[in-house]
């Protein structure tokens, strides 16, 4: 079943008066099936963060449309948008984006509280999530008191606790050491195996190699796609690095 | 490098406008006030005017308080600003500046600010000083009062104080820069809060302190104790406030968090969490705001009560235009002589003589408990938080029925065991009075006789006591009165005579009449214990209370400046801190309306917590202040409360206006 479809997304940023408009996305189209784990790869400035922000409804495209479960996001307005974001989507950010004023527990429960979930239901959902992420002993701590990896796992817990249709991850391993990164990617694998749909934006080949499918973006356009199929993660990783270096070489030639 | 540092310093000042500008304005106001009060103190005309010694003392006290306050305030604001800038300074080091370069920049910034505010403040003082002086003289209603005099000494002192302050703040910043390493500088803004320990214990302790302080303020009824405990009580309140703001609020919010059904609601969830975080971090500045507001309210209220209560205080100590208290009885010929002299002089000096009242009485300060009148024991004079002398003390005037008859023109047919009570006090309801074991039937209580109803107050009597504490006891004859006088005066046998004269006319004529009559009375050789003259006292009051009001207005202006500045800085810095958090909340799924509602609610709470606490503190401080004001003959508590309430209302309005203004700035600052 198709979960997400992006149709010819364009995003133009108007710079200051008189300046040349900057085209961040020049017509991006793709779709994601339910239960898929997709990575979008690209260098800095390729437009991948803009794309993610649009998919996350944090930004609106200049033209084109995004459908989630067949519903156009354009039609959701104002107040409903916040609720939509809260209920259908889960976010994992590079810099964790935890609220310093909340304990780990409250950070995780935040979206549920905002949706006015009954207390018992919140408790019921919290337990398995924190158990599987190994952050149970940290629940009463504040974000400043825990490590980066623990913070990111807290952020994942916050993303999954609403049982969202789609988890959007923006450079989730960007601020983590290699061990924590590995841990996080394993968690993503696990989530995906349980049927969770994930979309991750990254420039790390290692992170991308955990996905089932990788989309490459450059200068605001998708230019390649790799599917993992039955290959092991190691093999997929080699393929990704190979296509990346090929792409770089092509760049050099075209210059 | 020096010039480069200078340019950087100028840039920094310009860039940080929303911080440097208010600071600059506040420093300028402080310089201005300091210079003005210095000018007052060094004014050579002060000793020349009536009550000048008191005024000089008030000004000296004012200079002391303002200087101390200016120093503390400026240094703490400086510290606060430096703390905020550590990240920026850290960046300079990373970019390759040495500590001495940074120090140089900071030095320049500080020097520019000091020079600018000193220059502008002194200039304002020079130009506006005379104007403000004239306005104040107008308020004091004495246009020919103290003339304004510019003083180089004052200018020198003010400059010296603020340049000294510059040296001190620079030294502090240099020391801090010297001590820190760049990594610390870079990260100093984001540090974990230290957990507050023993929350419950601290909260209970703070509450106990506050209750004790309040109880002391409420139950102290005499000015000796009030004077002694005032300082101690203030410290206790400040201490309790700071504890309660830190631990108490955290404790309360933590308790709210534990009530899960309450806490896990969208509205409460974000607000409670953010508040507990924020209040803990801001406990000290909230305490400062609260204490400053309280000081402001008490100072303003007290000065207003003194100044506007002038008539009350005057009438309390001057029931008649002119009074004499003589320490012996007068013969009827002496009485007639004085009455005749008054009539004669009134004519020569063109005043209308309204009334001359002369009578003799035995006076005793006695204890009235229930319906028993007795003498005080030694224990009663021990002054604790309450003083029996104040709770039960009445000034008793013993007179005979023939005196009553002569003054009122009415016949009081009293038996030996009967008496008549004359008083202006509505609370006295006695049907019998027991004195030294003998019970007297009270024939009547008269509340409007010429004894108690004097020209300026309803108590009558002399200036020696509070009018509501005055009781006249009228006895049948000397034989009936003597044993009572013997008992109440404890064998001292003192009979006094009171002369009260009322007259009207122009101030000039009144003064001439007073001086002539005074000369005559003093020349007649009667033993005068004390004398009061309304016109004379009014002048005295004017200069004393005028000076107090002046200093009070100065203090209020200074406290207000400080309060406003601290609130402003707090708001701005918090807005910057919170910006990220609110953006994040939106990402996670809060809509814009919810976010702005949350912001509003929190800003309001943080804003109004100190205000409400200050109002509560003030309401408890007022009775204590009133007890002190009694010493200055301000005996009407209702009036004092009214003055304080009006000040509180005015202050609250100012506070609200200021709240509106800053929230606008903040909305701009956090706009997404």
Task: List the SSEs and their pairings.
The complex is a heterodimer of chains A (255) and B (672).
Chain A: E1 2-13, E2 22-33, E3 37-41, H1 48-55, E4 63-68, E5 71-72, H2 78-88, E6 89-92, H3 104-114, H4 119-133, H5 148-160, E7 166-170, H6 178-193, E8 197-202, H7 205-208, E9 213-218, E10 221-227, H8 233-254
Helix pairs in contact in A: 3-5, 4-5, 5-6
Chain B: H1 2-15, H2 17-41, H3 52-84, H4 86-94, H5 99-139, H6 152-179, H7 182-187, H8 199-219, H9 223-258, H10 260-263, H11 266-308, H12 310-317, E1 322-326, H13 332-348, E2 352-369, E3 372-374, H14 388-392, E4 393-400, H15 401-408, E5 418-423, E6 432-435, E7 438-446, E8 470-475, H16 478-488, E9 495-504, H17 507-523, E10 528-533, H18 534-588, H19 592-629, H20 637-670
Parallel strand pairs in B: 3-6, 4-8, 5-7
Antiparallel strand pairs in B: 1-9, 1-10, 2-3, 2-4, 2-9, 5-8, 6-7
Helix pairs in contact in B: 1-5, 2-3, 2-5, 2-6, 2-18, 3-6, 3-18, 5-6, 8-9, 8-19, 9-11, 9-19, 11-12, 11-18, 11-19, 11-20, 13-17, 18-19, 18-20, 19-20
């Amino acid at each position: 079943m198709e979960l997400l479809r992006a149709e010819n997304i364009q995003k133009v940023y108007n710079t200051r008066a008189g300046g040349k408009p900057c085209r961040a996305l020049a017509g991006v189209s793709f779709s994601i099936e339910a239960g898929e784990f997709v990575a979008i790869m690209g260098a800095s400035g390729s437009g991948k963060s803009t794309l993610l922000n649009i998919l996350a409804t944090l930004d609106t495209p200049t033209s084109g449309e995004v459908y989630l479960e067949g519903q156009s996001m354009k039609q959701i307005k104002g107040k409903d948008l916040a609720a939509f974001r809260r209920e259908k989507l889960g976010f994992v950010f590079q810099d964790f984006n935890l609220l310093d004023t909340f304990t780990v527990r409250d950070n995780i429960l935040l979206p549920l509280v905002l949706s006015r979930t009954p207390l018992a239901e919140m408790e019921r959902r919290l337990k398995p999530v924190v158990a599987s992420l190994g952050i149970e002993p940290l629940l009463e701590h504040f974000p400043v008191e825990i490590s980066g990896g623990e913070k990111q796992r807290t952020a994942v817990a916050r993303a999954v606790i609403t049982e969202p249709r789609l988890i959007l991850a923006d450079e989730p391993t960007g601020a983590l050491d290699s061990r924590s990164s590995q841990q996080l990617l394993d968690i993503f694998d696990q989530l995906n195996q349980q049927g969770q749909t994930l979309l991750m934006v990254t420039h790390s080949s290692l992170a991308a190699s955990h996905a089932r499918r990788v989309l490459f973006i450059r200068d605001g356009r998708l230019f390649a796609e790799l599917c993992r199929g039955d290959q092991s993660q190691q093999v997929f990783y080699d393929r990704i690095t190979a296509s990346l270096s090929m792409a770089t070489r092509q760049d050099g030639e075209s210059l | 490098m020096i010039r480069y540092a200078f340019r950087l310093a100028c840039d920094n000042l310009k860039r940080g406008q929303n911080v440097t500008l208010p600071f600059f304005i506040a420093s300028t106001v402080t310089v201005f006030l300091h210079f003005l009060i210095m000018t007052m103190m060094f004014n050579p005309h002060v000793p020349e005017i009536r009550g000048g010694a008191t005024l000089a003392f008030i000004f000296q006290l004012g200079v002391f308080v303002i200087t101390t306050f200016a120093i503390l305030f400026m240094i703490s604001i400086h510290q606060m600003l430096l703390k905020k800038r550590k990240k920026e300074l850290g960046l300079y080091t990373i970019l390759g500046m040495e500590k001495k370069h940074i120090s140089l920049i900071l030095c320049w910034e500080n020097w520019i600010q000091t020079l600018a505010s000193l220059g502008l403040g002194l200039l304002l003082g020079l130009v506006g000083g005379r104007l403000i002086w004239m306005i104040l003289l107008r308020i004091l209603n004495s246009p020919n009062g103290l003339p304004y005099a510019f003083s180089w000494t004052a200018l020198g002192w003010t400059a010296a104080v603020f340049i000294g302050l510059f040296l001190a703040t620079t030294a502090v910043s240099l020391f801090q820069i010297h001590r820190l390493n760049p990594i610390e500088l870079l990260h100093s803004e984001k540090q974990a809060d230290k957990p507050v320990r023993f929350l419950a214990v601290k909260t209970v302790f703070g509450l106990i302190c506050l209750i004790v302080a309040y109880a002391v303020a409420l139950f102290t009824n005499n000015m000796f104790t009030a004077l002694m405990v005032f300082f101690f009580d203030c410290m206790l309140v400040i201490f309790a406030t700071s504890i309660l703001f830190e631990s108490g609020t955290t404790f309360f919010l933590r308790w709210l968090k534990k009530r899960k059904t309450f806490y896990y609601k969208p509205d409460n969830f974000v607000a409670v969490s953010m508040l507990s975080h924020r209040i803990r971090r801001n406990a000290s500045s909230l305490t400062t705001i609260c204490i400053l507001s309280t000081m402001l309210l008490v100072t303003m209220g007290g000065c207003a009560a003194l100044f506007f209560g002038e008539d009350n205080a005057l009438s309390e100590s001057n029931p008649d235009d002119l009074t004499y208290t003589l320490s012996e009885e007068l013969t009827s010929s002496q009485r007639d002589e004085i009455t005749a002299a008054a009539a004669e002089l009134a004519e020569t000096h063109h005043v209308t003589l309204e009334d001359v009242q002369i009578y003799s009485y035995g006076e005793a300060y006695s204890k009235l408990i229930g319906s028993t009148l007795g003498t005080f024991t030694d224990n009663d004079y021990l002054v604790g938080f309450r003083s029996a002398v104040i709770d039960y003390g009445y000034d008793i005037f013993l007179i005979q029925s023939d005196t009553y008859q002569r003054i009122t023109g009415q016949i009081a047919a009293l038996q030996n065991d009967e008496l008549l009570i004359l008083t202006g006090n509505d609370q006295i309801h006695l049907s019998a009075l027991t004195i030294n074991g003998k019970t007297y039937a009270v024939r009547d209580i008269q509340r409007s006789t010429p004894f108690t109803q004097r020209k300026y107050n309803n108590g009558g009597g002399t200036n020696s006591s509070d009018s509501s504490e005055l009781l006249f006891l009228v006895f049948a004859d000397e034989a009936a009165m003597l044993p009572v006088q013997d008992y109440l005066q404890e064998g001292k046998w003192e009979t006094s005579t009171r002369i009260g004269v009322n007259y009207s006319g122009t101030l000039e004529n009144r003064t001439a009449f007073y001086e002539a009559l005074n000369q005559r009375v003093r020349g007649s050789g009667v033993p005068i214990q004390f004398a009061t003259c309304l016109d004379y006292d009014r002048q005295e009051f004017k200069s004393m209370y005028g000076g107090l009001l002046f200093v009070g207005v100065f203090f209020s202006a200074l406290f207000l400046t400080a309060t406003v500045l601290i609130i402003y800085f707090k708001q701005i810095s918090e807005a910057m801190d919170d910006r990220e958090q609110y953006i994040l909340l939106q990402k996670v799924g809060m809509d814009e309306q919810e976010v702005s509602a949350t912001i509003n609610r929190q800003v309001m709470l943080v804003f109004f917590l100190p205000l409400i606490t200050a109002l509560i503190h003030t309401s408890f401080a007022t009775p204590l202040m009133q007890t002190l004001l009694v010493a200055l003959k301000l005996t009407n508590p209702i009036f004092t409360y009214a003055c304080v309430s009006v000040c509180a209302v005015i202050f609250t309005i100012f506070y609200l206006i200021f709240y509106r203004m800053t929230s606008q700035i903040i909305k701009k600052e956090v706009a997404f």
